[in-house]
Amino acid sequence: MRYQTQGTCSSAIDIEVKDGIIESVKFIGGCSGNTQGVSALVKGMRVEDAVSRLKGIKCGFKPTSCPDQLARALESIK
């Protein structure tokens, strides 16, 4: 699925989930090293675990972040 992000440098996130396990995450735009790191860390993780770890993370003074947007995306596909 493709999730359109809001309030971040990345514009979208492509996510593959199978049986509640994250198979792949690819951010479109954003800080390349950080988004690649987040993607690698959540691969193989249960959706619920990723959401609980990432939800609410902020980027500087922004009310959201790329990890928070990923959590929101994952919540929308549960």
What low-confidence regions span 5 or more consecutive residues with pLDDT below 50? Answer: none
What is the molecular shape?
A: globular
User: How many helices?
Assistant: 3
Mean of pLDDT? 97
- Series of H and E elements: EEEHHH
- Please indicate the percent range of residues in DSSP E strands (runs of 2 or more): 25-35%
Domain count: the total is 1
What Rg, in angstroms, do the CA atoms define?
A: 11 Å
CATH architecture: 2-Layer Sandwich
Termini separation: 12 Å
What proportion of the residues is helical, as a percent range? 25-40%
| Spatial sequence of strands, sheet with the most strands | 1-2-3
CATH topology: Enolase-like, domain 1
Care to count the β-strands?
3
Major beta-sheet overview: 3 strands, antiparallel
CATH C-level class: Alpha Beta
Could you say which structural class the secondary elements and strand pairing correspond to?
alpha+beta
